[in-house]
Amino acid sequence: MKRIVIIGAGPAGLTAAYELLNRSSEYSVTILEETSFIGGLSRSVKCSSCIMDPGGHRFFTGIDRIGKLWTELIPVSDDTGKNDDILMKRKRYSSIYFKDRFFDYPISAGIFRQLKGLNAPKAAMGYIRSAIFPRKENNLEDLFINRFGSPVYEMFFKTYTEKHWGRSPRDISADWGYQRIRALKLSSVIGNIFKSSEKAAPDEFYYPKYGPGQLWERTAELIKSKGADILSEHKVRRICTENGRISAVICTDKNGYEITVKGDIFLSSMPLKELSLGIDSAPKDIKRIAEGLSFRDHIIVGVLAVRPEKFPSDCWIYIHDNSLKVSRVQIYNNWSPYLLKDPDKYIWLGAEYFCQENDSLWKKSDNELAEIAAKELSQIGLIPSEKSVIHTHTERIKKAYPAYFDSYSEIDTIKKYMDSFGNLYCIGRNGQHRYNNMDHSMMTALVAVDNILSGKTDKADIWNVNTEDIYNEAQN
């Protein structure tokens, strides 16, 4: 029996284990997880009488194989009262908060009607100019301007991008935008300028009754029932190589004891940076590039407050206002009313802040962060007042977002090096240093398993997940 070692019990690692054990009895599976929980950013955090989704995980995909897997793990049901292990169908609304007003998101051709007094003609002409005379897309700023025009870029995208990444869009690779942003159509813009303003029909998506972690807890139960070992609080420190293959990983457990885990095949969803630096035989140039790979860290403050009279329909709201530190707000009532007790009486919000580990925001106490969140949510109008807050809970998440700057431009060198190890497969968001959604992360695992079972040695198809245009947000 071949030994499979999977690093990381997030969506990619758990999906890989589930798929392998379902399709073959020739493998033993051991999962090494650094933290005490499973699911990674896609976990459900239970706090007081509420459940928090740290990342806002919409179960929506253009990949049939992923959709079938979700419903195989947790079925879709409208019987929410009696059934717990279910996916509920939800309506997706989201907005941008800018200059004390709310605008539809994703940005569509209707934005030029919504702007009204905010230089709408200038914005429309700016878009038309960019559509006819596009820039060469050397960076993310060029991409945004080509897709929306300079005025809309300055109003909506520049500030938010700087808050999210802590860098100017000029310093960020356009690769991020190619993954996530689709251009407006010139004909749609011209046609919509003269229409009456109507809110776009919402997309539909699925969502587990008790948050995304419900799916991963279920997956973990199933793979353990098939013999897999999930070792929590086991941090991989070093990766051993022999004759051009990975031979073992050395990790420490929660008590600090070193453990060597040998294997025949390794799937890694640990940060590509840490994997590269941990390989004992990695060349100096690989380690130099790895040292330069950057991340954006994440703080989310859950705020339970008295329900306001005017209740928003949004699942989340992007805050494009430089006077506020908060970047995005999740409204958990609209994800699932089962994420809190008495949703008719309370509103349960997740205020998200992007930062760097150990910067001034990261170092603030939970109480200080709760005060900032309450003040800002009150200013936006999402809670009646700071005094209406009943309960708060703070989560700090390291390496939440792989960044597309610094040594990212040399990442192909690291990818080629990793592929030189025939028994190593890099999967997931951090495993590929790619801003993947949950379905993309899962798909990298499925493709890796396909390759393992078929004996395919070319790993390009694993790295190419989430490069096709079908993954982008539709922009009508």
What this model shows, in words?
Helix 4 packs antiparallel against helix 8. This protein is 34% helix and 24% strand. Strands 7-6-15-16-17-14-18 form a 7-stranded mixed beta sheet, sandwiched between helices. A 5-stranded parallel beta sheet has the order 9-2-1-13-19, covered by helices on one side. The protein has a 3-stranded antiparallel beta sheet with strand order 10-11-12, covered by helices on one side. Mean pLDDT is 91; it is low at 469-476. The N and C termini lie far apart (52 Å). The longest helix has 17 residues, at 438-454. A hairpin with a 5-residue loop joins strand 11 and strand 12 (258-262). The protein has helices at 11-23, 64-73, 111-114, 120-132, 140-148, 150-165, 175-180, 186-193, 213-225, 272-278, 284-292, 332-335, 366-380, 411-419, 429-432, 438-454, 460-463; strands at 2-7, 27-32, 45-47, 50-52, 87-92, 94-98, 101-105, 203-208, 229-231, 235-242, 245-252, 258-262, 265-268, 295-306, 316-319, 328-331, 346-355, 389-402, 424-426. With 476 residues, the protein is α/β, with parallel strands linked by helices. The protein has 17 helices and 19 strands. It folds into 3 domains: 2-40 and 211-293 and 404-471, FAD/NAD(P)-binding domain, CATH 3.50.50; 70-107 and 200-208 and 295-402, Polyamine Oxidase, Chain A, domain 2 (Alpha-Beta Complex), CATH 3.90.660; 109-193, no CATH class.
Structural descriptors:
globular; 17 helices; 3 domains; 7-stranded mixed sheet; 476 residues; 5-stranded parallel sheet; FAD/NAD(P)-binding domain; 19 strands; Polyamine Oxidase, Chain A, domain 2; 24% strand; alpha/beta; disordered C terminus
